[in-house]
Amino acid sequence: LSTNRNDTIGIGGFPWIRWYQTFGVGYVPNDVVPNVFMAVAMDLRDDPANIHPRTKHDVGYRLAQAGLAVAYGQQVEYLGPIVSTVTLDSATSTIDIAYSKVTGIDLRSPNGFEVCCQGTQCSNDNLWVASPVSLKNTLTV
Description:
Layout: H1 14-21, H2 56-70, E1 82-89, E2 94-100, E3 114-116, E4 128-130
Antiparallel strand pairs: 1-2, 3-4
């Protein structure tokens, strides 16, 4: 979970924690909790530290932007990156995920990505499979 690790040991139940924090939607605000927001800080790499980044200014800025948008209705950018397209290629067993609202992706580890191999929404840990992730271009993994 901490950015100073480059393996899958620390991943554990973190995706489930995020899922339940969003009431089973995957993001906030949403229709279930329209007045809730959060600031993701997993991208604020801080190798010598633990899960809590020392760059509090970045986290504070993200929370302030979300608060201005959600609580005060101001038109400010506070969400992202947003998945713009997902393409499945069954012949090569690959999934391309492209993002919008980013200038580039900095992939720091191939670990921590999982796919659900079912035709319906997965809810059982056993149905999720660890899968390496790699950059296809600056906006697609």
